[in-house]
Design brief:
Distance between the termini: 94 Å
Oligomer: single chain
Order of helices and strands: EEEEEHHEEEEEEEE
Radius of gyration: 33 Å
Strand content: 25-35%
Shape: rod-shaped
Helix content: 10-25%
Low-confidence stretches: none
Structural class: alpha+beta
Largest sheet: 5 strands, mixed
Strand order of the largest sheet: 2-1-3-5-4
Number of strands: 13
């Protein structure tokens, strides 16, 4: 049966058509019934009648399948690399760089385990996470100043001391406060005491 084909590489077949087209223009006689699902496994050759023929070759088909699987694996690997590279850039950005990339950061959500240093958006404002925590509805970035800082308008590094009510708003190691007109920095995580209540938990900053 004569079919018109588009050649692939090394005398293989890329496409076929029952009529001559701009793409499928070369006439070929198929020696056996055509398995359209395995058309890439057919090889062309010049027969004894000086006409172009095609027959199925199992090795050619297996090589095509291996190449197709390798291409799929390469695309999957590239997609993973792109994803990791994208995440690395976002996670390692400075505050100024993050502000430039603000639309790329995810929106704040409840029930998420956020880690210190993570950037996120809330009401189109970029925030940086100040301490590890699991977000909840009453700790929104615009209100939970011990958990988030507005990157475009950083909070005072030594805000007035506010008595924590629990672990969720306790001071972390390195947090600064102003207490009785002096600046202090917490020496421990989970600090719920004032410098007057637990002096060893705070370092006076001269």
């Amino acid at each position: 049966m004569q079919i018109y084909i588009e050649y692939g590489l090394n005398a293989t077949i890329k496409n076929i058509s029952s009529v001559k087209t701009e793409q499928c223009y070369a006439p070929v006689f198929f020696d056996d019934p055509i398995d359209i699902d395995k058309i890439e496994g057919y090889m062309t050759y010049i027969g004894s009648d000086s006409q172009t023929h095609a027959s199925f070759d199992q090795a050619t088909w297996e090589a095509y399948e291996r190449a197709k699987e390798e291409e799929r694996a390469r695309k999957q690997a590239q997609a993973m690399l792109d994803k990791l590279s994208y995440k690395t850039v976002l996670d390692s950005a400075t505050d100024d760089q993050a502000l430039e990339m603000r639309p790329l950061y995810p929106e704040w959500q409840t029930g998420i385990e956020y880690t210190k240093g993570t950037f996120l958006q809330y009401d189109s404002i970029l925030y940086r996470v100040l301490q590890d925590h699991k977000s909840q509805a009453d700790w929104t970035p615009d209100k939970a100043v011990s958990l988030y800082v507005n990157v475009a308008d950083p909070q005072d590094p030594y805000p007035p001391f506010k008595k924590p009510t629990g672990a969720h708003d306790a001071y972390s190691k390195g947090d600064g406060i102003t207490f009785e007109e002096k600046h202090y920095r917490s020496k421990i995580d989970g600090n719920v005491y004032s410098p007057a209540e637990y002096q060893d938990g705070w370092e006076l900053v001269e």
